[in-house]
Every structure is written in C-alpha cells, then in structure tokens.
C-alpha cells in the first residue's frame, strides 16, 4: 500500500482530526489520528494490517513467535497483523503507570515483534520493548500503521511503518499562537485512572 492509500483509509473513516491535542508524550499537535475510527471497520483494519504483515515478512527478521502491542490502541492492529502472520497476539497494559504483560505467559527467549497503531515519539513502543526485554524476550523489531515522526522516533529497535506521515508536535510551553488559542483535548488513554 502507498502512503496515500493508507491516509485515504484514515480520511474516509473520519480519523484525521484537527484542533489542539495533547499527545501521549505530552507534546501538543494540531492533528490527531483517531485510529479507533478506522478500527471500527473490520474490513479496513484487515486491509491495513495485511499490508503491514507483508512489510514485516519482507523485512526478514527471522522467526517470530508473538506479536505484543501496547493497550489500548495497539490491541486491534496487533491482533489483526498477528492473524496475517499466523502467530499469537498479546498486549501489555498499564498497572501503576507501567506497561505490563498481565494476562499472558511469555517464555524466555521468545522472539517478539511489537505492533503499534501510531508512533509519534516512540515512547510507548520503547516502554513495551523494555518491559518485554525485562521478561527475557528477544524483541526483533517494532511495526506500526503510521509513523508521525517520519523516521525520527527511537523505538529501541528498527521500526517498520506502513506509512510515514510527518505531523508537527510542540512542547506545551512553545505553542504557536493559533494552537494556543484552541482548547486542548487528550484523546488517548495514558494517564487515565
Ligand atoms: O510514540 P508515542 O509518543 O508513545 O505516541 C504514540 C502512542 O500514543 C497512543 O497511545 P496512548 O498512550 O495515547 O493511548 P491509546 O493507546 O489508548 O490510544 C498511540 O496508541 C501510541 O501508543
Ligand atoms: O502521539 C499520540 O499520542 C497520538 C497521536 C495520534 O495521531 N494518534 C494517536 O492515537 N496518538
Ligand atoms: Mg497507544
């Protein structure tokens, strides 16, 4: 799939929002990719994740035992990508602020790829990689549907993105005036009770 085809799926799903958004990293942005509006359509999710699975296969990362995704946003694309790769899918979720694999067993030495929905700074992917390494897993790579950093994010391992889409993001104390004039909303789940 081309970048334009991926973005067209987001656009036709009403998933490209404009306003003033507080991102998971704390950065602020005038654009938010509300992936949930894509994932509500199983056939659109299938098209994107099948293409992501093909990219992962083409990267020749060696055997993959599991996909692990950070909740919430990563769960649906992780599951659907796992279906196309023929491997099980698991997720990490926050407990006391830390991402943990609360519901699954993971053998030491298991080869894992981390699948995210959207990567902005790579912070959530990095947290997932570190949690898995602490359990003895071998993280062979990260993958996502859209990389908002266009290659700049540091996930701790190589990142395979179905599409790169550079979107501006600013520290909260360095907002352009047109962004500062809008009320800020935080659509993601990090920091929710
Ligand atoms: O690369 P980063 O700077 O970490 O940003 C990307 C992360 O932000 C979103 O998650 P969020 O924590 O907002 O919650 P969600 O998964 O429930 O949407 C998204 O799902 C990624 O996990
Ligand atoms: O950085 C984020 O938190 C983020 C950006 C985005 O466009 N979409 C999303 O779900 N999260
Ligand atoms: Mg997330």
TrEMBL record:
Detail which positions bind 5-phospho-alpha-D-ribose 1-diphosphate: 116-124
Top EC group = transferase
Q: Which GO terms describe its biological process?
A: 'de novo' UMP biosynthetic process; pyrimidine nucleobase biosynthetic process
Keywords from UniProt, A to Z, are: Glycosyltransferase, Magnesium, Pyrimidine biosynthesis, Transferase
SUPFAM superfamilies per the record? PRTase-like
Give the CDD domains listed for this entry: PRTases_typeI
Q: Which reaction does it catalyse?
A: orotidine 5'-phosphate + diphosphate = orotate + 5-phospho-alpha-D-ribose 1-diphosphate
Residues engaged in binding orotate: 120, 148
Q: Needs which cofactor?
A: Mg(2+)
Enzyme Commission code: 2.4.2.10
Q: Which residues form the Phosphoribosyltransferase domain?
A: 46-152
GO molecular function ontology, one term from the record: magnesium ion binding
What pathway, per the record? Pyrimidine metabolism; UMP biosynthesis via de novo pathway; UMP from orotate: step 1/2
Record carries keyword Cytoplasm: no
Q: State the family it belongs to.
A: Belongs to the purine/pyrimidine phosphoribosyltransferase family. PyrE subfamily.
Q: What does this protein do?
A: Catalyzes the transfer of a ribosyl phosphate group from 5-phosphoribose 1-diphosphate to orotate, leading to the formation of orotidine monophosphate (OMP).
How the protein assembles, per its UniProt entry?
Homodimer.
In its UniProt entry, what is this protein called? Orotate phosphoribosyltransferase
Q: Which organism is it from?
A: Breoghania corrubedonensis
**Gene encoding this chain?**
pyrE
């Amino acid at each position: 799939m081309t970048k334009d085809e991926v973005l067209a799926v987001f656009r036709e799903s009403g998933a490209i929002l404009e306003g003033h958004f507080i991102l998971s990293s704390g950065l602020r942005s005038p654009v938010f990719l509300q992936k949930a509006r894509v994932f509500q359509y199983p056939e659109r999710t299938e098209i994107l994740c099948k293409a992501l699975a093909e990219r992962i296969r083409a990267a020749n990362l060696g055997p993959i035992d599991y996909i692990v995704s950070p909740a919430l946003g990563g769960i649906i694309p992780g599951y659907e990508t796992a279906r196309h790769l023929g491997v099980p899918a698991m997720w990490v979720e926050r407990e006391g602020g830390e991402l943990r694999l609360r519901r699954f067993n993971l053998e030491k030495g298991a080869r894992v790829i981390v699948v995210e929905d959207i990567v902005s700074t790579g912070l959530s992917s990095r947290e997932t990689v570190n949690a898995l390494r602490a359990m003895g897993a071998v993280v062979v790579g990260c993958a996502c549907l859209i990389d908002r950093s266009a290659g700049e994010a540091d996930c701790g391992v190589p990142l395979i993105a179905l599409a790169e889409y550079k979107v501006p993001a600013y520290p909260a104390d360095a907002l352009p005036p047109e962004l500062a004039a809008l009320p800020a909303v935080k659509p993601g789940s990090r920091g929710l009770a």
